[in-house]
């Protein structure tokens, strides 16, 4: 139970952090109507597999590979959420149909690349929060296979 509560704090923190970035992005682009509470929920949900995967991957695995795995997981979650929220429920929260390489307007290579960067940052943030808040092992990263 204690482990679940610790993780819940991280998931909510990560979701809120991403949601604030999303709000800033949409406001800067002049699209405040595109801001949806569903993005906060989706961001917190996406933090779950990212944190769990991060928790179980060995420190010896290069950070870039952890980020790629996390980014692909986020992209998969974005596809599922997009099909549910945008296609099935018709909420129209995002539409990548104008971008090259998109799949049904829900995911695209450009945002997959962005999610890889976001996942890398999230992994580092979660690791350090676990260290500072819960006394877990100090983060240590490698960039290449040993």
Automatic annotation (TrEMBL):
The chain crosses the membrane at residues 7-28, 34-52, 64-91, 111-133. Keywords: Membrane, Transmembrane, Transmembrane helix. InterPro entries: CmpB_TMEM229. This is ABC-transporter type IV. It comes from bioreactor metagenome. The lineage of its organism: unclassified sequences, metagenomes, ecological metagenomes.
């Amino acid at each position: 139970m204690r482990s679940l509560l610790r993780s819940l704090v991280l998931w909510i923190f990560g979701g809120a952090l991403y949601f604030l970035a999303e709000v800033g992005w949409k406001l800067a682009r002049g699209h405040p109507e595109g801001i949806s509470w569903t993005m906060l929920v989706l961001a917190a949900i996406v933090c779950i597999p990212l944190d769990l995967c991060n928790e179980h991957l060995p420190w010896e695995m290069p950070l870039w590979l952890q980020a790629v795995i996390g980014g692909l997981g986020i992209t998969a979650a974005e596809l599922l959420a997009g099909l549910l929220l945008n296609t099935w429920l018709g909420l129209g929260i995002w539409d990548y149909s104008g971008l090259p390489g998109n799949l049904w307007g829900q995911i695209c290579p450009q945002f997959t690349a962005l999610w890889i960067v976001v996942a890398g940052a999230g992994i580092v943030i979660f690791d350090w929060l676990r260290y500072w808040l819960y006394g877990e092992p100090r983060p240590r990263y490698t960039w290449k296979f040993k």
